[in-house]
Amino acid sequence: MTVSHPDYPYSFNPDACKTCSGRCCNGESGNIWVNRKEIGAIARVLSMDTDPFIQTYLRKSGYRFTIKELKSKDNYACVFFDEDRNGCVIYEARPEQCRTFPFWPYFKEHPEEAAAECPGVQCE
Q1: Structural domain boundaries in the chain
Q2: Nearest residue to 99 (alpha-carbon basis) of 41, 49, 28
């Protein structure tokens, strides 16, 4: 099953996630933004109260929260990416930023970069 978006010059095959090593979840350091609603949903999935969840898994950047990353070798990974399972431990509550990948505004103008980062991206 391939997913497409009318405003993007590529499609996405989510089956590629099964064989990918989570390239969308690790690589260069960046921000994984979360809003209050997403914070509550993730905390519930982890069976945590909101305040301890924020203190443990988020960092503040300006007026916003971003999910912490872990440094491993020459790379950074989302704290919720499980290498052993090759997947996200909060998948059902993952933030919008994660749910919309690879259909991010930047990639609309740079489809070759989306394809280089994600084996599921099929340029048209």
Answers
A1: 1-24+101-124, 25-89
A2: 41
Of the candidates 35, 14, 31, 37, which has an alpha carbon nearest to the alpha carbon of residue 87?
14
Q: Which segments within 1-124 are labelled E, that is strand?
A: 3-4, 10-12, 26-27, 33-34, 58-61, 64-67, 69-72, 75-78, 81-82, 87-88, 121-123
Q: Enter the DSSP assignment of 5.
A: -
Asked whether the CA dihedral 2, 82, 38, 59 is positive or negative, the reply is negative
pLDDT digits (tens, 9 = 90+) for 58-74: 999 999 999 999 997 78
**Which residue(s) pair with 121 in the sheet?**
12
Phi and psi torsions of 53, nearest 5°: -60, -50
Give the helix ranges, DSSP H, for 46-110. Answer: 50-57, 96-99, 105-109
Tell me the pLDDT tens digit for each residue of 15-51.
998 888 888 999 889 999 999 999 999 999 999 999 9
